[in-house]
Design brief:
It contains 4 helices and 6 strands. By secondary structure, the chain is an alpha+beta fold. It has one domain: Aspartate Aminotransferase, domain 1 (Alpha-Beta Complex). It is globular, with a radius of gyration of 14 Å. 29% of the residues are buried. This is DGTPase.
Length: 133
Amino acid sequence: MAVPRNALRKWEKVRDWALRLPGAVEEHPWGDTVAKVDRKVFVFLGVDDGSHPLGVTVKLTDETAHAHALACPGAEPAGYGLGKAGWVHVPLEPAGAPAAELLCDWVEESYRTVATKRRAAELDTRAAERAGR
């Protein structure tokens, strides 16, 4: 199954953004790609080999962001009971799928939800330094 180029570009941007966050590391449990901070997953990226449709799964505790994500084509609460804790799976391939920039915002929210206060403060410091340039 061929991976649509637009969806793959979004997936790559989201992955790259996630891995630039303070303390983020990539791991491959269960054969899937995930990004973790301090041993906690903050985004599930699935696989990019075409064996499954591309998508991302993020934890959104902000009600507005959560509702927006669930309104995306094909989006649904994450499986394995994670949906009850605010995790949402958002497919990248359907027409009307969110832009990479919005997905990156959601990844950052998910990161802030699971990261320590120290890591979140480090992210804020980086953003302030970039804004001050």
